[in-house]
Specification:
Blueprint: H1 8-23, H2 29-33, H3 37-56, H4 62-82, H5 89-115, E1 138-140, E2 146-148
Antiparallel strand pairs: 1-2
Helix pairs in contact: 3-4, 3-5, 4-5
């Protein structure tokens, strides 16, 4: 039984669990523990960033990087299926930015998997230069206007 002094979020989660059990909806553990999509995506982004860094340092091979990237992506898919959905527009914007950052890391991983650790000037690939992305991304609003987000420092 819900007590009036319990936090509202706890009462809402309990009500959600009750309704999902009543209606047969599948509400995952992450949704019930309050884990958001953004948190799950950011966790995967950090994991991929560390893997790419290890690959550039020569700690893991491109083949191992690919295996680990696929594992991180599968784990992310499983967690996203269970996490709370961002329903508000501002929450969705945050999730979209997190997905953009994740996609950037996936591309970095795939580049290294394909090109390896050697400089390949014919492809414009210079891992020896250790060029870091500024973190700027192009965003397109519903009207079709494109803007460049500020660089992260």
């Amino acid at each position: 039984m819900l007590k009036p002094h319990q936090p509202t979020s706890h009462r809402l989660l309990c009500a959600l669990a009750f309704l999902s059990a009543l209606t047969g909806l599948n509400v995952g553990a992450h949704a019930l523990d309050g884990t958001t999509q953004k948190e799950v995506i950011v966790e995967s982004t950090v994991a991929l960033e560390q893997l790419v860094r290890q690959a550039h340092q020569g700690d893991i091979s491109p083949e191992r990087l690919r295996t680990e990237r696929v594992r991180v992506e599968r784990k992310l898919d499983a967690h996203l299926a269970k996490s709370a959905v961002a329903a508000r527009p501002k929450e969705q914007l945050v999730v979209n930015q997190a997905r953009t950052d994740l996609n950037q890391q996936i591309m970095c991983s795939q580049e290294f998997e394909f090109f390896g650790s050697e400089d390949r000037p014919e492809w414009g690939w210079y891992p020896s230069r250790q060029i870091q992305s500024t973190g700027s991304v192009v965003k397109v609003d519903k009207a079709g206007n494109a803007t460049l987000t500020p660089a992260k420092h």
